[in-house]
Write a structure and sequence with these properties.
single chain; mainly alpha; two-stranded parallel sheet; 56% helix
Length: 144
């Protein structure tokens, strides 16, 4: 089964349907861009050379940006892999529980300290957006 077929039968695309504007990160060669475009989701893959000797500067910059984000994903995955139950061979008698076990490990991982410390300027922007949304809501309520 190819990665495209697996993506289609897994139900992953259905979970993304209706969530326009989000972006999925994948490895090179993960060719599900058409399926994602149909539901309004962007696919971010690192740029690759094809037949060129050197990447254009904008592709180099894009690759660096993706790599800077990808490291955090790898760190989060690494946290999950540390659970003893996910180490080694998974017993056949527990296969029916595999999805639940992985979900519990993911939830427990989310309770660990944050991987990326929030930046003050980002928090300020979020606060401004929050108050702007409140003002917009109050204005709409007053008009009614």
């Amino acid at each position: 089964m190819t990665h495209v077929e697996l993506t289609q039968v897994s139900g992953f695309l259905e979970k993304l349907d209706g969530k326009k504007g989000i972006s999925i990160m994948a490895d090179r060669g993960f060719t599900i861009q058409e399926q994602l475009q149909k539901i309004g989701v962007a696919l971010n893959i690192p740029p690759f050379l094809n037949d060129c000797k050197q990447l254009p500067p904008e592709d180099v910059q894009k690759g660096r940006h993706i790599a800077s984000l990808r490291i955090h994903i790898e760190r989060a995955i690494g946290r999950m892999k540390k659970y003893d139950i996910l180490q080694g061979v998974f017993p056949l008698s527990m296969v029916r529980l595999a999805n639940q076990i992985i979900c519990v490990c993911a939830w427990l991982t989310n309770f660990q300290p944050v991987l990326i410390a929030p930046t003050p300027h980002l928090l300020e922007a979020q606060v401004e957006e929050y108050f702007q949304a409140l003002d917009d809501t109050e204005s709409e309520t007053e008009r009614k």
